[in-house]
Amino acid sequence: MIRLANMNKTTRSSLFTYALVIVAFVIIQLLRTFKDGGVGSVLEGQLIPICAYITMALALNLVVGVSGELSLGHAGFMSIGAFLGCSAAGALVHVIPSAPLRLAVAMVVGAILAGFFGFLIGIPVLRLNGDYLAIVTLAFGEIIKSLLTNVYLGVDESGFHFSFLTDKTNLGTGGIQLIKGPMGVMNTLRISSFIAGFILVMIALIVIFNLVNSRTGRAIMATRDNRIAAESIGISVTKYKMIAFVTSAALAGAAGTLYGCSQVTFTATKFDFNTSILILVFVVLGGLGNMWGSVIAAAALTILPEALRQFADYRMLVYAIVLILVMLATNNPTIQGFFARLRTSAEEKKGGAQ
Amino acid sequence: MKKFLAFTMAAALTLSLAACGGGSGSGSSATSGSDASSSGTSTASGAAFKLGGTGPLTGSASIYGLAAQRGAQIAVDEINAQGGDIQFELKYEDDVNDPEKAVNAYNALKSWGMQISLGSVTTQPGIATSSYNFADSIFALTPSASSPDVISGKDNVYQMCFSDPNQGTASAKYISEQKLGEKVFIIWKSDDNYSTGIKDKFVAEAETLGLNVVGNATFTTDSATDFTVQLNQAKQAGADLLFLPIYYDAASLILTQANAMGYAPKFFGVDGMDGILTVDGFDTSLAEGVMLLTPFNADAQDEATQNFVKAYQDKYGETPIQFAADAYDCVYAYKQALETAGCTPDMSASELNEKLKATFPTITFNGLTGDGAGITWDATGAVSKSPKGMVIQNGAYVGMD
User: What ipTM was predicted for this assembly?
Assistant: First the structure.
């Protein structure tokens, strides 16, 4: 206990986040295994999307909270992961029979490709000083949406067939149509699982905490806090912002693959500006740079609209008001003061006992 | 202090809304969708089939979801009022036209105890929920999810509407047989499954029939406000007939903008065009002479249609569109099939699933949609009924034949 209290704040916070995710996972798994009816069919169906959204929120928090840039097109990276990762999973269906292994390979493919696009965007934009990343990622999200809506991709014995705007893939017998233009992707098999989602969230946490608490992470935060001071001591601002942005894009790609492989069907229009903003809302609500906050906010805000179904037509109105309430409550000096007093009195008690 | 006040106000607002949301469920106001679904729940007796469906009750596509929900509600109310052996309890959940939300809505219905399903109203959610219907063995008859992907590979998912390819083929045949146009130009929505499906089949059929398609132009959800470029292309190509395999909201803009630029070809639409006369602020005189293929005609003189239109207008204050009629027919088709199969409400969803799967291909159903020959299904779940060619005259649909 004393060792825990003496730990520095960041270590304590990351341990708390790992514990939070693991305990939530264990409780849900126990309920699913031993309780009749599990966690209920509504929550059961949402488990994998929640894991995907948590990973998205963590990835975006790395850009917005840690490196101090604003990205308004993270859904674009998610869609690259979803479309190309699911295509990889579909194409490898005969090569890798084991579903978990295929999903892992697909996620790696989705992450690498999304990371590559993040790198391409970062080359010109992260050299600039200002809010340019927000504008460029916003445009990127829209462009990717329009492009993916018009892509036709299929695979058969003679290899991949690709066409744009109209379907000219002409697959041979036994061919699989992977992306069908405006109809998006239709998965015959849903290979994502809750366990895979949990592992992805854990990997995202490990990657982010190790990055943030390293020399590189401190350099990233230095460029955020004072660009000129960081440059003056020889930190390459572009390089460190690029590391954060590409890592974030790659995690978003992996989250996209997890999401895509859990859905029967999805289209490029799913990953629009609204989705990007939704993820940004998770990050802002959970607190910039606060990883466990992102985890809780992403999970809560994904469940909330479904939990409000009893309000029928007023559902989204109530959802908006709850959002405003939470934002007000977390920034309310009266409430913050109350918790601060609680904390001091608890510490005083501890001090008295020693 | 100000912040604290804001916080209190917001809290008060949430509480009052919560009271409102709970209270209006038992109220009798006829305008809100939630009222309709809960009043259905309250009228049904204890032994009723639990019928569930998902549809966009809010958001940009809500006109279809609400129409289907209301059409089904009227049928359920009528059947329950007659008090026969077959009673229904209807519940619609909102899916905002998003496959992910549709699966959530489907799961909510499943935990409510849904025994038979009305599937989803729109296509993309329909593809998602139908695969869950198949996995869970819950029989589904969708009023309007028209893509072939909704039913393919699922032996317990049936459609009440024509499939998209059929509409494209039927439209091309109709235009060619009736010699409606020499040069056809197509404006279609490239990010829409429905529009793309119809357009592809239309072009294929037009080639075999020797119909002269002089060009086509596309738009997407984001660019669905300005059509002058597409209309100019059509004008330059010398088209005398515009084929619009799109929904009526965009079509109403095309008609308005074509009129503004003094371009007056013939317009030919498909069932998505149905509803164009109800668009707010749209000058319906522009729609004069617009032709469309639709299975339902609100001005038909037969008794069943007139009763339905009257009941719908009394309850919701508007003329029903085809989606409402399809959903109405779905409920009555269920009634006929359940009676034929001798099902009782105490059966489980999978028992009903087996019985309905065996029964549906054998029945002939006479409803509001389709013609006198009746509606039949084959074992894949595809419907067979003939479309009606309609033309708009004096602000109303008139049969073309």
Answer: 0.85
